[in-house]
NitT/TauT family transport system permease protein
Amino acid sequence: MRPMFLRLLKPGYRAWVMIWIISIFVLWEGLAWMLHLFMSPQQATSRLPYLHVVMDSFYRHWNTLAEQSSVTFGNAAIGFAGGTLLGALLALLMSAAVWIERTLSPYVVSSQMVPVIGLAPIVYGIIHNAEWARIVMAAYVTFFPVIIHTLKGLKSASPQHLELMRAYGTSWRARYVKCLLPSALPGLFSGMKIAAPLAVTSSIVVELMGAPDGLGVLMVSSLYYGSAQAGMFWATIMLSMGIGLISYLFISLAEHWLTPWQPEFRPKGGE
């Protein structure tokens, strides 16, 4: 079965997308209306504003939202790329020998014991630069899932194929290029799909610590004004969710193009 996001690109599924969007709109508006029935307008708006109010905030403040989201996404993307590269290289190194994996594994696992919400102010306090702090935190949450899934993919390579290549005297470089790396690509993309939304979230967490710009700053400032800026607050939340979703879909499309041999990407009869 093909991934759902690829199916949604087909005309036959566009009606379902519209139904899904309309259902969310109706449910959101209905819940907001019920809150306004039992609470004061200020209390109800601070908890869940009408969706049309949020959309209006999108329209009126789009330039600011676009500018600040580009800052957040740009730093998250750089950190994500660096964390992916670091994770892939460490996975390749750990796959070279069992003793290397056993030596590095405790350090790799222990590096994730500190929660992001606790590590972000420490990193920001040491670096004293919001841009680099966002990059470092995005790389931090990226490299671990990339290592785990890439290493799993490297280990999934067919032992028979590797033994046959050794029997023919194939070099270690050829074994990696012809067998190990293709086996590792699905795992690499799985780790990247997990890490991409996390990289955006970690950048926003840094911004909540006092950065001068970014979506996190808009969230804090919107909360400061309470119900008067509730629409703006929810707009930043929805925009950050959208950035994470787009990142996930982009990586999924790249996986479909670069690893077409996977069973879920093979065309089925009638599709």
Notes: Residues 1-48 form one domain. The chain has a mean pLDDT of 84. The two ends are 10 Å apart (CA to CA).
